[in-house]
Amino acid sequence: MDPLTNSLAAFTLSRTGLGRLSRRGEAALILGASLPDLDYLSVPFSAVNLFSFVGGPFHALVAAPLLAAGLAALLRLHSRQPIGFASLWLLGLAGIGLRLTLDLLGVDGVQLLYPLDRAWFHLDTLPWFDPWLFLLLLGYAFWPWISHLVNLEMGIRKAAGRGFAFVVILLATGYVGYRAANHAEAISVIANFSYAGSVPLREACFPDTYSLARVHCVVETDSHFANIDYFVGENFDATEAQLLKRQKQPVWQVAQFQSTWYQQLSNRLRMPYWTVFPADFPAGAHEAVMQDLILAPEPFPRFRLRILLDSRERLLEETLVVNSWGFDRFEITLQR
What we know:
Layout: H1 3-14, H2 25-34, H3 49-52, H4 64-77, H5 85-104, H6 131-154, H7 163-190, E1 202-207, E2 214-220, E3 224-231, E4 242-245, H8 249-258, H9 260-265, E5 272-278, E6 286-292, E7 303-309, E8 315-324, E9 328-335
Antiparallel strand pairs: 1-2, 2-3, 3-4, 5-6, 6-7, 7-8, 8-9
């Protein structure tokens, strides 16, 4: 989940009364929800960290109490009056817990059990940026100001209370539940069809950023990958799926075995799709290109790995192409 939505969600939670449990309690909740973003500090050292490290150790359950303790200590240090450490720690921990929950609902996932288990957990319910959830929370953030102006105009002195914060939380929860129901429906339907004459080996779906009725899905079979746009409540036609033929394995299996970038990315990948074709140079060489159909779908893939093999299938160079949030594009090449 994007940082702004996380902060707005923490702000809304603080207005239910939790932020008043301690001095600087609201700051503890909001800053706690932002603390896991410390893993972005690793990106300048290596762009591959954007996919192999972000969402990892700082999002682990074991790190949460340590991060909350550090936050509580800093808030006490910068306070002119004594503040109870325990209350700040609990509020910071609540903010971190909210953040981990929102990230768990996304497609990218988090390594909740790091370092015991480096698996990425994800529920695929929300996109990385959900404009409708963002607008709901942003509207609440401005509501006290809007409510104050309306009350002045109408001659009412009483401002909106914390009850509205609970209403917004209930609306947000219902919205997430609706997204989750759409995801479950899409999975259950597409799994019952065959694609290019083959039954699914596995399937995965992720929500459309803007449309609430569209769910994007990928199905893997023995011979193909199928890209699917599923529309909730409509009859599904499996023949409209975009079929991507799976390439012969030997070349790209050798490529991924030799690739440094692939070894760092492999634990994060969901549906890696390889294409292999002859390279222009040197003679007899092949180029293998990998993209992940879930984490880096078209038309704006977040990353792509290109590997060049010589005629003896030895790695000559590998290039990681990164599109950072669709704005910056850069390439990192390693040569052998």
